[in-house]
From TrEMBL:
One of its GO terms (molecular function) is ATP hydrolysis activity. GO terms for cellular component: plasma membrane. Residues 4-240 form the ABC transporter domain. One of its GO terms (biological process) is iron ion transport. This is ATP-binding cassette domain-containing protein. It comes from Rubrobacter tropicus. Coiled coil: none annotated. Keywords: ATP-binding, Cell membrane, Ion transport, Iron, Iron transport, Membrane, Nucleotide-binding, Transport.
Length: 277
């Protein structure tokens, strides 16, 4: 069953069309990673799924409902999003950040409650930041900050999480820290997770499904062992690579050994200005 899906969606900025006629599905209760070269539309797709930008054509559905017809507060109760390189006011503590995840549940007739407090405390414990909850974000390591931002998304108590490059600028240990947390949230709580990743090996290891984008279109989509192939590396990323089973997990492991100098599908059309790097 699909949690989120698009039908022939068209997205762009000003005169530039980044995605044209894209149809994708995000399965419920699974981890899905979107991969592809810089500028191919990954971040734009995520922004549209969270209704942070309006499609120029096509439609997006959440649990079968057209997302364009849903109130903003209702979307925030059903979708948690962590954008790329999020920013917070100076001096904001981890606990204060997590508490912001409860705003979609507030209203004129419903103020802060014990239920809100329990949701925040659970989010802090789940992400392993309860012991540093009173520290300002700007005093934390990269991995701690990412876990603090994820705690805010968890405090929303949504069934679906959208994360744009959650491991960007993190070293290997902190990348594993964040990805193992997301894996645990999926396994233990059944959260549906869609994330944009640059690292194909991490996408293959931590995802049930991989969507590979090229020029704003789906080049391939499916289980990692079907999608992550030498042809994908060559055609989408312009890289020659061997793909072998990981000796521990058996999932595909990419070993690049040079650039592909033949015809490539990676660099045509408008680039996605939402993607950095």
């Amino acid at each position: 069953m699909s949690k989120l899906r698009t039908e022939k969606v068209r997205l762009g900025y000003d005169e530039a069309v980044v995605i044209d006629g894209l149809t994708v599905e995000v399965p419920e209760g699974k981890i899905t990673s979107v991969v592809g070269p810089n500028g191919c539309g990954k971040s734009t797709l995520l922004r549209s799924l969270a209704r942070l930008m309006k499609p120029r054509g096509g439609a997006i559905y959440l649990d079968g409902d057209a997302i364009s017809s849903l109130p903003t507060r209702e979307i925030a109760r059903r979708l948690g999003i962590l954008p790329q390189s999020p920013a917070a006011p100076e001096g904001l503590t981890v606990r204060e950040l997590a508490a912001q995840g409860r705003y979609p549940h507030q209203g004129w007739l419903r103020q802060w409650s014990r239920g809100d407090e329990r949701a925040v405390e659970k989010a802090l414990r789940t992400t392993g930041v309860a012991e540093i909850a009173d520290r300002p974000l700007d005093t934390l390591s990269g991995g701690q900050r990412q876990r603090a931002w994820i705690s805010m998304a968890l405090a929303q108590e949504t069934e679906t999480l959208l994360l744009d490059e959650p491991t960007t600028f993190l070293d290997m240990a902190h990348q594993l820290e964040v990805l193992q947390l997301l894996d645990r949230l999926n396994r233990e709580e059944g959260r549906t997770i869609l994330m944009v990743l640059h690292d194909l090996n991490n996408a293959a290891r931590y995802s049930h499904r991989v969507i590979a984008l090229s020029k704003g279109r789906v080049f391939d989509a499916g289980p990692p062992d079907e999608v992550v192939t030498p042809d994908l590396l060559r055609q989408v990323f312009g890289v020659e690579a061997d793909v072998v089973p990981d000796p521990r997990t058996g999932v595909p492991l990419c070993i690049p050994h040079g650039l592909h100098h033949g015809p490539s599908k990676t660099r045509f059309g408008a680039l996605d200005p939402a993607e950095k790097g």
